Amino acid sequence: MASQDTRISRRTILIAGGASAGALALAGGAFWLGTSVSKTLTSGNPTQSSLPGFGIEPEILRSSGGKLTVDLVAAYSEIQIGGKPAKLKTYNGTTPGPTWMVKPGDVITVNFTNNLGEPTNLHTHGFHVSPAGNSDNVFVEVADGETFTYQYTLADNHPSAPFWYHPHHHGMAADQVFAGLYGAIVVEDTEPIPATKERVLVLSDISLQTDGNVAGANMMSKMMGREGDILLLNGQVQPSYASDQNALERWRIVNSCTSRYMKLSVPGGTGTLLGKDSGRFALPQKVTEFTLAPGNRADLLVQFGSEPVSLSYTTVPHPDAMMMGSTQTYTNYPLAQFIPGSTTAATVTALPPQTAGPDLRSEAIADSRSFTLKMPNMGGMGGMGNMNGGFTINGQAFNMDVINTSVKLGTVEEWTIINGTTMDHPFHLHVWPMQVLSIGDSVVTAVEYQDVVNVPANSRSVIRVHFDKFEGNAVYHCHILDHEDQGMMGIIEANPA
Description:
By secondary structure, the protein is mainly beta. The protein is 3% helix and 40% strand. It contains 3 helices and 34 strands. It has helices at 173-178, 219-224, 481-485; strands spanning 8-9, 60-62, 67-81, 84-91, 99-102, 107-115, 123-125, 140-141, 147-153, 162-166, 183-187, 197-206, 230-233, 240-245, 248-255, 262-265, 270-276, 285-287, 289-292, 297-303, 309-315, 333-344, 367-374, 392-393, 405-408, 411-419, 425-429, 434-439, 442-443, 449-450, 452-455, 460-467, 472-478, 489-495. Strands 23, 24, 26, 28, 29, 30 and 32 form a 7-stranded mixed beta sheet that branches. Strands 13-12-15-20-17-18 form a 6-stranded mixed beta sheet, with no helix packed on it. A 5-stranded mixed beta sheet has the order 2-5-11-10-7. The protein is globular, with a radius of gyration of 21 Å. The two termini are 17 Å apart.
């Protein structure tokens, strides 16, 4: 079924309720283990001398009375990266942008202004909300100089988890995210989880030219997915943070990298993973390391002692890394360090019971589908002059006017995502969370929900999805954003049963 002119201009969209321009107000998973790498990046670790106050976290915008209103401006800003000036694309002048702290049942209004000099839009990654109208509608296009009002209504039972927001304008998503446009969202727990301190940790990477401008992507980085040569945590290079002795900290970690898989560990501390993406594990998992694909998030408790704790990164080897030339690899590279002071934290009470969600394996299946991911042949370098159309799902590159998949609301479907390439792909479905049944040869026996699921090279992953509500059009795609921009994306249409 074809749809005419799926992209919607802000001038033509019908906004239910008619938000007034004068009403602007400023509001004050399965995890998998990576493999080892062959060499270590030598870099000085942060030390006590960096303190106090070297590490910063994004500004918090917190809802009140069931509402959050945000004025969000996308524009170029000059900020410091590793002590050097850089000209980045930012939200409200910072990278990352402000964190939205909200609760289930809240209504979030975002008065979004685009001053980038190019079109853009906004996607609330992982939100289980309507994809239509002025909600999480990635077909909206906000032209330069225009303001558009988004509104997201969270259900009373919306998952409590870390989410994030970023641009999703087709053909420009990778460039805009890589240049600094991303920010975290936290949907808080209805029953608080005890912790000494909560932190939001947004991971990203970037490459800069000598003049401070963001480096563009060459042909090979578009093929493989670009990875920056500067690693950032909350927009900083190896920041240090003060903590307490024996603290139990809660870290909400967002992998906002355009393409990089992040294998993480917490040397000096003990990690307990509460969940990934919007999913919560029924039984929290003790972890020594875990991997976040691009777009994944982690909800992690970290038990401190008296010694510093690092959030450390090790490279996940790329199957085709040799074709990239001299790609830097990392082993236990400290993205940030957390240093206990003389204060001893108070004892933290036990965790409340966790709910993983319904097990869709016991549900009747309305349809079984397969989605095959393909890209240009890695060995055929001579034919890479024009890769447009070479990145496909089921043999089709993204077309704004074509509905690729139609589903009925109220049904459960089983999808097999087949990776017909020699590199991993992170598969992302908007609006509806996916229960993971298997990743490659690994069967997932527990109930685990994610919105980005890794599909290993030359393998497959199996998921089930309950299309419980929300009529309209959304998308599914590879979350290596260079691949999405070049066509590895499809449109899904949800219709009443």
